[in-house]
Amino acid sequence: SDVQQLSSIRSSHTSAEQHYLVFTSTLHRRYHNTYITTPWVLHI
Length: 44
Known about the structure:
With 44 residues, this protein is mostly helical. The protein has three helices and no strands.
């Protein structure tokens, strides 16, 4: 569909950003209980 094509085009342009967001969000979930302040450090 057009929506899927637009989404695919957009994701190809922002793949690096998306990978970063997925990486940081995954870290946040995985280590939140142990390293509570780490996500804040990564965002800075």
